Amino acid sequence: MDLGPLNICEEMTILHGGFLLAEQLFHPKALAELTKSDWEHVGRPIVEALREISSAAAHSQPFAWKKKALIIIWAKVLQPHPVTPSDTETRWQEDLFFSVGNMIPTINHTILFELLKSLEASGLFIQLLMALPTTICHAELERFLEHVTVDTSSEDVAFFLDVWWEMMKTTPRRCLQPCIWTNWPR
Q: Which of 88, 98, 113, 129 is deepest in the core (most CB within 10 A)?
């Protein structure tokens, strides 16, 4: 998947600002502790930042910056925590997302999934999910299912069904078969 340059630029500054505002709204807690019920109060600046990026970039790259931003956010969620000094030493040399990822505070899967739902980005979610290695794909699908089944709202159900539809349209289904039915709560 060719991402193009991931320079720190105006779009990343807007995204950074959205996360800083969300962090202020959630203070004294860290965004990594955010739950679904907190999203309505805290998520708005992040969603607005992504919408601003998408509309500003619409004349040249209508979909590209939303995709890049979600890739950066997902990469941030997948980072191991806590980060040790030796991790940092290795990451700045080897990690494509090091500089842009460090502009975003430590976050959790709730932020990722609620952001995808708020942006109605089920197709993009599946596209990015399919780019992950199979074991990570399975783990992320399990996390998504766990997320949907906690404090389930009608919006969660609608988003789940949109994601499900996108999965069924997507080929190859390498990631989906072993995970979906075996891990769905009964």
A: 113
At 52, list the tokens: 């601003």
Residue pLDDT, tens place only, 35-70: 999 999 999 999 999 998 888 655 566 578 888 889
Q: Which residue has the tokens 């959205």?
A: 18
Q: Residue 168: what pLDDT?
A: 85
Dist CA 63 CA 50 (whole Å): 11
Distance CA 70, CA 51 (A): 12
Q: Diameter of the chain by CA atoms? A: 47
How far apart are the C-alpha atoms of 140 and 31, rounded to whole Å?
Answer: 19
For the chain, the straight-line distance linking the first and the last C-alpha, in angstroms and rounded, comes to 36
State the Cα–Cα distance between residues 130 and 127, nearest whole angstrom: 5
The number of folded domains in the chain is 1
Residue 185 falls within a domain, yes or no? no
pLDDT at 99 exceeding the cut of 80: no
Domain with 73, as residue range(s), is 6-168
Is 87 a domain residue?
yes
pTM of the predicted model as reported, rounded to 2 decimal places? 0.83
Spatial contact of 136 and 78, defined as CB atoms under 8 Å apart: yes
Residue-level pLDDT at 42: 95
CA separation for the pair 83, 59 (Å, rounded): 38
